[in-house]
Design a protein that fits this description.
252 residues; three-stranded antiparallel beta sheet; Tyr_kinase_AS; 3 domains; Transferase(Phosphotransferase), domain 1; protein kinase activity; Kinase-like_dom_sf; alpha+beta; 11 strands
Length: 252
């Protein structure tokens, strides 16, 4: 039979109730400093550890408190995470300690790691200009950290400023480095680039000319990104300000 007026009104009321419930749920979401709400994942336990969400760092990356005592970072990866490479980098002292990796969603993994110590910032958020002595010290430290990863037999595949944490010791002029975001990382000539590289970013990302979708990731590709991206001051805008790259691995 054709819907009656009563049926139509009933459907409208049901939809209205659903909207009210959604609005109430939205109001319960945490509010950030700029007044926007953040929708945290429903994941609350990983590897037996209880997670309390504190803030969203970027898409699919969250600052969390674990077991009410340990400040950590939770990353939701859309693919298998380079756990072995991350642990090798930690053993070399150039990555945060990895706490757990568990399956999440259809093909992804939830990655829990310790938060970087105070003072670390992403390379593309550093507070000095390219003519500052810390710039060359930072590039040298980044090169050294990546070479340590390579010496362990692993490659990263996405050595951009957004995936490098740096902390300058102004007294000694040294720069400490931590590598993060090991989504694509693994054994050289075994892991591959999962998608075509985006060469049209703003600013453009200087991928090695040989990088293509499904091509094998090589140590020389990592070093190319350092020399043509990190060293060349990529991800900076005129005046010394920093252009923050959006996203991480998986968004080349």
């Amino acid at each position: 039979r054709r819907p009656s007026v009563v049926d139509k009104v009933s459907h409208v009321l049901a939809a209205s109730r659903a909207c009210v419930r959604a609005l109430r749920a939205h109001r319960r979401l945490p509010i950030t400093a700029d007044g926007t709400s953040v929708c945290f994942p429903q994941l609350s336990v990983i590897d037996g550890r209880r997670i309390a969400y504190l803030s969203q760092l970027r898409r699919n990356v969250f600052r969390v408190m674990v077991d009410e005592r340990l400040l950590c970072v939770l990353k939701l990866s859309h693919s298998a995470y380079g756990r072995d490479a991350h642990e090798a980098a930690f053993a070399e002292g150039v990555a945060p300690r990895l706490l757990a990796v568990e399956s999440f969603g259809a093909n992804g993994e939830a990655v829990l790691m310790e938060h970087a110590p105070p003072g670390f910032k992403r390379w593309n958020e550093r507070e000095w200009d390219v003519d500052d002595p810390r710039e060359e010290a930072g590039v040298t430290a980044i090169r050294r950290a990546v070479l340590q990863l390579h010496a362990s037999g692993y490659v990263h595949g996405d050595i951009r400023g957004v995936n490098l944490l740096v902390r300058a010791d102004e007294a000694e002029g040294a720069v400490d480095v931590m590598i993060v975001d090991f989504d694509w990382a693994g054994r050289e000539r075994v892991v591959v680039y999962p998608r075509p590289p985006n060469r049209d970013g703003d600013p453009p990302i200087p991928w090695h000319p040989d990088v293509q979708q499904y091509s094998k990731i090589l140590a020389s590709h990592d070093m190319y990104l350092i020399e043509h991206g990190i060293r060349a001051g990529a991800h900076r805008v005129p005046g010394g300000a920093v252009a923050i790259a959006a996203g991480g691995a998986g968004e080349p």
